Records
---
Amino acid sequence: MTVSKLEKLIFLLVCSYCLLSVSTLAVEYKYADLSEGLAEANAKLEELRAIHQPRMLQQVPSRELSNYKIIDTKGTDDDDDSILYLLQYYGEEDTFGISKVITKIGVQVTFDKEYSVRVKIYDVSTQRWEIPETFPFPYFKDSEKLSVSKGCCEVIVEGEPFSLIIKRKDTHQVIFDTKGKQFAFSDYYLELGAKVPTPNIYGYGERYYDFKLRPGVYTIWARDEPKVLQSPRGGGHVYGHQPVGLIRDGNKDYFIVFLRNSNAMDIVIGEEPSITFKVVGGIFDFVFFLGDKRPDTVIKRYHDYIGHFVMMPFWSMGLHQSRWGYNDIGAFERIIRKYNEYDIPLDVIWSDIDYMVEKEDFTMNTRAFPPKKLTELLTSTGKRWVPIIDAGIKNRGRAKDVGVKMDIFMKKKNGGIFTGRVWPGD
């Protein structure tokens, strides 16, 4: 049966509703070639919503989708610096919804540092999107490529059905065990669940919520929704995309589970305790970092991996005032005067996109914000000014022309520039 673009799009939108992590905008950006027919698909989605209640996805992957058997293994000698398992799907179900099951996957295990292990699960036959191994993305810049015998963990990969167990060699603690949990690896949808040692789980942001994550659904999809509080009900997502969690094991040692995947995802914390990753696209690329009984030890190791913080200027540590709606320099003058009047400290004032010309990046409305007058105001009052920059480039103007010349814009399947909609319009 031939699957139409509309059917594919409907499937993605159903996942977005049930997972509460992929909106129609997300689908447009991640699957730009399917953006045609979006209105028609949304109309159909309304009919399907009654079927897909409650909010969590009812059509969970069946155990059948875990049915992979190991057909080959490479790098099993103690001196090898990686192990590759090739697995073949033998289940009877060939789709999840209309998302085609990937029938041949690879599981690659590498030890880049004495305190880390990386497990990469990917499509052997087709190149899928994955985070590049280059700056500014996180990657091991000085990988030691330890041999399997010197690695920090014992990694057990089994087939019939597929499972993955990660066990620390120093304390013999099992920190990640997928046996008996859901696994699916299909074209548009990935899922992997694992038992973890304790319910002491932190992170997986960006979110405004309790320090320790309670059982529930935590969505990661940077959608610029600051009014959404980050609860365990799913669907809350603000600016950051940090699929990294800090977990304490049964020996009270800390470890980190980082998923190198930039797609929309739900992370489900279970009661038992467990953690399940539900991801729309890409691959599973896990990096585990081991630590000790101090959480900062493993966090520092993670920071070594992603890159250290830039030393910020001293004034940036001061007291800031920021909001949308400061339309001209007169607003700045009033704000600074009121701060002084009420004896409230102020070091820095911010501009939202109000300072731009028609909300267009890399422009400044010099009539509303005369540069000379603005400089005099900041100098005389001892204040700093931060103008924000937005992600949307207007579909005309110098910024677009430069971007076209540099060939840096997202493309549709036909090679044309993908056009979205944000503050400056198309």
Note: Residues 6-38, 41-58 have pLDDT under 50 and may be disordered.
---
Amino acid sequence: MINALADFPLHVPCNAAFIFLLAGMITALALKTSNTFDLLVADKKNKKSDEYAENVFEFINEPGKFSSFMFAYYAICIVFIVFLIIMPFFADVYTVYGQSALKAYNFKAAVPYLEQAIKLNPAQGDAIYLLGTALTAIATSDGAGISDPKMLERGQQLLKNSTNYAADKGMYNNLGFIGLRKFNMLSSKTENALEKNITAGNDGGLKSGSDLKINEKKAALKEAIAYFEKAIGCEPMSSESLNNIGIAYMHSSFIDEREKNIETAKKYFEKSIKYNENFIIAYNNMGDLYSQTKEYDKALENYKKVIDSSVEVVINENRKKNIFNFNYASCVKEKARAFYQIGEIMMITGKYPQALNFYNAAYDHQKMPQVVLKIGLAHMKMGNISEGRRILEELKASMPPNSEIYKKASEYQQVKNSDNNGYFGY
């Protein structure tokens, strides 16, 4: 109850002011039964109050009239307690349960709590924001794509609605995140369309890197950047917001103004790291950026910082800053990503044994078919043809024949030896 009272003014609708006013008026009238009220009446009479005031007091003192006022007073009190204290309080309780589930990355468990909180108090801005976050996370749980567009649309609308109650960087970061997911989905569709056209012999003059939906992709990134800028406006030193906008600019560098967008992305990643040296996602992103510009030494330097980081320190230090992006699983995932990306650099530079070691380390941290694919390729490039083909064949047996991994595994099985340096599926 103390928590509800502490937050009380924050979730009272504007039209509740009328109830406050009416309750105050009736409370004043109820004072008639107390000595204080009698003194006030006497004082008014002694001072010969104006005729209007005297008429009011006489009206209240008439037999039977005051009981109706008391009834109205108690009715208003009940309405006041139920709708403006009890229901908002329980809405707060459900919101806290939902928030706890979100912090534990249990998004589906959070939804019913947050739905109930909004049902009890439609003006509970925190519940609206958290429900939008949960639905967005569920709808985008399928890799880099969107598994449930309708759920994502609802989540996006809830996040937009939540900005009417309070401006928070988390709301804008999540809205920007949706823009990035739309970009990834459009990129995936473009690649699939290109592949189908070329496979069918209908390339239509399309070249590698051509974009079938460039305007839509630009719009998605522009939307994301706009929201991330608002997030930074709420908290200029937020490592999370700075990293996010850096990602958006890094993606933009693949579309147009390459050098300008790369430099802008680099600036934001550097700021993210400056304000929070334990925000390891920014190091990985900085490594990806340097890999993109073929500055491999700098890329390796950033990836190794992720590998050398302590999971416990990363989690604890970020929680001190109210950043809950990191748990044990997410930290291990970032380490796997760093190992994998170093393996990619080793492959590109022809250091196949080292590449194999880093791919194996990535697989030890996170068992993904993409990593197994590159382990098989590394063996093929080293001349371990039988071992490489065995690994790739086992991988194909576990994948649908129409999947991208299956197709790549079939291609990699044709690699003869390390002299075939020009063959990569990057």
Note: The chain is about 75% helix and 0% strand.
